[in-house]
Specification:
Helicase, Ruva Protein, domain 3; Lysozyme; two-stranded antiparallel ribbon; 6 strands
Length: about 375
């Protein structure tokens, strides 16, 4: 689920970011005016917008992302199965030459793309049945994130003008992503590749096009060829847990001096952060620079970590050591915690029951203040002390 690409938005008129809400008919008229100012023919803009309607189901889906409330162990076990692993390995062989070309051209390991392909659409089997034009227009009209979604509507109109997008039949995810690896219209314009040579970038029906476009996009977002992204590690019980978290970056030598060891193989000679998704008694990973690129694809920490871990599994890594984490908080308790942290002045974002980066940072600070293991994993004990 791709939310982070805003590069092309910088090239659009500033007025685009102020136009949301109000009459939907007036909103569409404003879109047409802006599209024509960008060089899109008026007739093409009319054809695109004539049947576009608001979709209440899109807003409902936007507000109900409860799956991201699950902790890492539960979430990863839900998404990763032996069937998905076996299917990924089979597809790696089936499209071996395609992946060879992607790795040579863009430097993105096949397992990374296979993991996205698996999680986004179950290897293309479930690409979403929301009308994409309606979804994008609905989210652009809604005034919470017009700076993200209005440019995507205009990009879809550009694709339509180039005969690469049918507003009546193109379907995808509720947030407007299209195809096997779920790319937004702006991403398609910037990174779409006609890998099968048929003259069109067909992300819904052509695996070579979808995978190669995904590889190009990851390179564009900063992926470094030949570098790892995630590695499971073991950590000593005497560790200073406040050193964990993506905000702290150390060299491999520094982590080794603190007693961090690779569970399998050797540590890469790269800067890295120690990740403890369920605290110091649960799984532990070192996240290398490529791991941060995942957040340009999806901003959910749990999803990103699971996708990155699954890619390592496809590459032969063993099942992680789940350990025995302390009990976490249910959704209502998490909301209580977020509210108490917000009352103390921390920026935890929306009170939504999801353990995001802002909440993790605040939790770690309060754990340190209270003399608890500062591993950023919220527990009932922390909630009670607050």
């Amino acid at each position: 689920m791709r939310f982070a690409s805003l590069a092309l938005a910088l090239t659009l008129p500033v007025t685009a970011f102020a136009q949301c809400g109000g009459s939907f008919a007036d909103f569409k008229a404003g879109l047409k005016t802006e599209a024509v100012s960008m060089g899109i023919p008026a007739a093409s803009a009319d054809a695109f917008l004539s049947g576009v309607t608001q979709d209440p189901a899109v807003l409902k889906a936007d507000q109900a992302q409860g799956v991201f409330q699950k902790p890492f162990i539960e979430f990863s076990r839900h998404l990763i199965s032996s069937q998905r692993l076996d299917k990924g390995k089979q597809l790696a062989q089936q499209y071996d030459s395609v992946f060879d070309n992607i790795e040579a051209t863009y430097g993105v390991d096949r397992t990374v793309l296979l993991a996205f392909w698996a999680f986004e659409t179950d290897y293309g089997a479930f690409q979403g049945d929301f009308n994409t034009a309606n979804a994008l227009a609905t989210l652009a009209h809604d005034c919470r994130r017009p700076d993200l979604f209005r440019p995507q509507v205009l990009a879809a109109m550009q694709l339509h003008a180039a005969d690469d997008f049918d507003p009546r039949t193109t379907t995808g995810a509720w947030a407007g992503e299209i195809g096997m690896v779920q790319m937004l219209p702006m991403d398609i314009i910037e990174n779409g590749v006609d890998a099968d040579g048929d003259g069109h970038v067909s992300l819904k029906t052509s695996a070579p096009d979808a995978l190669t476009s995904g590889g190009k996009m990851l390179q564009h977002l900063g992926w470094q060829a030949g570098q790892p992204w995630l590695q499971e590690v073991s950590v000593p019980a005497s560790m200073d847990w406040s050193q964990s978290g993506l905000e702290t970056v150390k060299s491999t030598a520094d982590w080794q001096a603190l007693g961090v060891e690779a569970r399998n193989g050797t540590l890469a000679d790269l800067p890295a952060s120690l990740i403890l998704p369920q605290g110091h008694k649960g799984p532990a990973f070192l996240a290398y620079p490529n791991f941060n690129v995942y957040f340009e694809w999806n901003q959910s920490f749990t999803y990103v970590l699971t996708a990155a871990y699954f890619a390592t599994r496809l590459g032969g890594a063993p099942v992680y050591d789940a350990g025995n984490p302390d009990a976490g908080l249910d959704s209502n308790q998490m909301k209580q915690l977020q509210q108490r942290l917000s009352d103390k002045g921390y920026d935890v974002g929306k009170i939504d029951g999801i353990l995001g980066s802002g909440t993790r940072t605040a939790v770690q600070a309060e754990q340190k203040r209270l003399g608890l293991p500062a591993d950023a994993w919220p527990t009932p004990e922390l909630l009670n002390q607050l």
